[in-house]
Amino acid sequence: MTEAIELEGGVFSQDLPGGRAGARLTVSEDGVSAQTAEGHRFRMSFDQCRLELGGASGRMWFCRDDPRGITIFSEGPALGSALAVHAPPALRTQLDEVEARARASQSRSQLLWIAGLLVLMVLIGLAYFGVRRAAQASVDLVPVSVDEKLGELAFANMDHVNSELKTPELRAAVSGIVARLAKAQPNSKFTYKVHVLDVDVVNAYALPGGDIIVYTGLLQRADSAAQLAGVLAHEMAHVERRHGMRRIAQSIGVIGAVQLVFGDVSGIAAAALEVLSVSTINAYSRDQEREADSDGVAKLARAGIDPNALAEFFERLMKTEASLPESLSWLGTHPDTAQRIATVRKLAQQQPRVKTAPIDVDWDDVRARAQKARHD
Ligand SMILES: [Zn+2]
């Protein structure tokens, strides 16, 4: 004989004052029973129990006896597991069905971006088995809503998320520059969102979908708004080119294809998030960095900002930040700096001449606020 299992839960019944009460649940071979603190006791045989999984959390187990108007419930997986131990075959079938339905509806809610990932993975699978070009092309077939969803998840999972500045001034200043650059890219599919984090590190990066994260350390140390614009134009280019998504495709392509075969969709989602962790997202390939520099320069020029500012910022960092550990700085994630300064300057010269116009930001004020944020 298998031992009875006890767990916390509750019961709905017209016989109870208020219609519900917390209860100690017991699951045994005889069925489910609930004992409230006031001494009410409810029993339900397995034949009487109709199972449901739901509630606000979607993780509440309900054992419903509709003819008698009694529902015994418990939050979390414990009731389901207890039933799995004691339930007779008929209820076990119900249990399996409920769990399968819950899994299905969970997947449905994530369908948009998972569907995108699936397309991606199938194509990566193809690429792995010989159709090489499909790997790059596959990302272009994924809707940008997938970039946005992944970016959002990645941002929510980041360590520094609690350091986001609540005061709007710095974000407004950075957003203004991003908007000016975005206007120079009129057919963009992305909506940019700026986050300023109070972290004393010279860094900025973009997540797939258009979240741009700028640290106060960078705002303090850039000499001008144009230098910040240089960094932003570069990061926006990573978004437009979907470099992060291409990294994901590369990193989880093979594993993803295998998981697809076994139908493990949640595994793919988890793996995608893993790849999106900050350390990995910053590890773009050198080709991607060159592309971002080149696009960034063009974007700056189109926006009427001198593209040499990007080179200036690299020079500024080389002088002052060269000794920092790689992981701690924008420079560290952007190798070959001397070479890139030369390339950026050369590209800047090749841009069609457009009139430059000053950036409407009080840069001294931005720096002061970034400095002060750290002491608030
Ligand atoms: Zn980059």
Task: Provide a brief overview of the structure.
This protein has 376 residues and is an alpha+beta fold. It has helices at 78-86, 89-109, 111-128, 133-141, 144-156, 168-183, 216-221, 225-240, 243-261, 265-275, 278-281, 286-302, 308-321, 337-350, 363-373, and strands spanning 5-12, 20-28, 31-36, 41-44, 50-54, 60-65, 70-75, 193-197, 204-206, 211-215.
Tell me what you see in this structure.
The protein is α+β, with helices and mostly antiparallel strands. 53% of the residues lie in helices and 15% in strands. It has 15 helices and ten strands. It has a seven-stranded antiparallel sheet with strand order 4-3-2-1-7-6-5. The protein has a three-stranded mixed sheet with strand order 8-10-9, sandwiched between helices. The longest helix has 21 residues, at 89-109. The termini are far apart. The model has no long low-confidence stretch (mean pLDDT 81). Residues 234, 238, 284, 289, 292, 334 line the site of zinc ion (ZN). Zinc ion binds at residues 234, 238, 284, 289, 292, 334.
- The chain-level structural class is alpha+beta
Assembly state here? single chain
Largest sheet: 7 strands, antiparallel
What is the mean pLDDT?
A: 81
Helix % is: 40-55%
Distance between the termini: 64 Å
What sort of overall outline do the alpha carbons produce when their principal axes are compared? elongated
Order of helices and strands: EEEEEEEHHHHHHEEEHHHHHHHHH
Radius of gyration: 28 Å
Q: Strand order, biggest sheet?
A: 4-3-2-1-7-6-5
Number of strands: 10
> Which regions have little confidence, pLDDT < 50, spanning 5+ residues?
none
| Ligands bound to this protein structure | zinc ion
- The percentage of residues in β strands lies in 15-25%
Number of helices: 15
